[in-house]
């Protein structure tokens, strides 16, 4: 009796069945990744030009210097600033409303001076984006839906 139960619980798969299952799954993932990559590659330089133009605009006020600007394809992060002065931005910043894109750019620009989110940092952000709290809330709503929702 226990022998029959074990046969029912553990079905037998032949190699061809497993291979078919995994091949289908790999094709779907590759197809999706290729589409995302194409979209990223086709918009990367446009995003770089946009971000650099806005950085130069806001830097007239702040007079800061940065090391390099990178445009990346990130799932969750809109931008970042390293201790070495490297600025990174998500290419999807192109598809945001202008005031949100400006907020992200100013936010990362201010991190060149203060690598924290203390009161001094937020006061610096408020010099150029006085309603930064509203922009922050709007970005959080977009993050809840996912960055991919911007592309549809």
Keywords summarizing the entry:
152 residues; Zincin-like; 3-stranded mixed β-sheet; mainly alpha
3D architecture notes:
- There is one protein chain.
- The protein is 60% helix and 7% strand.
- The longest helix has 48 residues, at 15-62.
- The protein is built from 5 helices and 3 strands.
- It is globular, with a radius of gyration of 23 Å.
- The chain has 152 residues and is mainly alpha-helical.
- It starts with a helix and ends in a 7-residue tail after the last helix.
- Helix 2 packs across helix 3.
- The chain has a single domain, classed as Zincin-like.
- Strand 2 (79-81) and strand 3 (87-90) form a beta hairpin.
Quick overview:
The chain has 152 residues and is mostly helical.
